[in-house]
Design a protein that fits this description.
Strand content: 15-25%
Number of helices: 4
Order of helices and strands: EEEHEEHEHEH
Shape: globular
Length: 125
């Protein structure tokens, strides 16, 4: 699996440099997501702009990322979805579960907004 991991203070940007998100790449993707999470990162942005096709195992790996981040009180955000992948997520009714934004920049903004909200809630207690 070809991918890049760009680590920042508040989030990790995982960019998949593959055209397919299928059973050939998902085992390694799930392992990478678990590794990022065990390193203490709770906010993961996944850039899927290169992905042209996804199948059920690809969706499964996205749900693994979502669950890991949610359990760590963080966010898992998808960005750069093409029409085919977006339709698959909508048909699977995962668009109501997963956080999806058009661009990586918007995903980064969303991470920071979530972090500010968490901080404000802590201070309010």
């Amino acid at each position: 699996m070809k991918f890049t991991v760009d680590k920042h203070e508040k989030y990790v940007l995982l960019k998949l440099n593959e055209s397919k998100l299928n059973s050939l790449v998902t085992p390694q993707l799930k392992s990478e997501l678990i590794l990022i999470n065990t390193e203490g990162q709770r906010n993961i942005i996944m850039d899927l702009s290169q992905i042209k096709f996804a199948d059920s195992s690809g969706l499964s790996s996205l749900l693994v990322g979502h669950r890991l981040c949610k359990n760590a009180a963080g966010v898992f955000i998808l960005s750069g979805l093409n029409d085919a992948v977006s339709r698959l997520i909508a048909i699977s009714q995962l668009d109501s579960v997963l956080s999806i934004v058009p661009t990586t920049e918007e995903a980064i903004d969303l991470v920071f907004m979530e972090e500010v909200e968490k901080q404000l809630k802590k201070e309010a207690k």
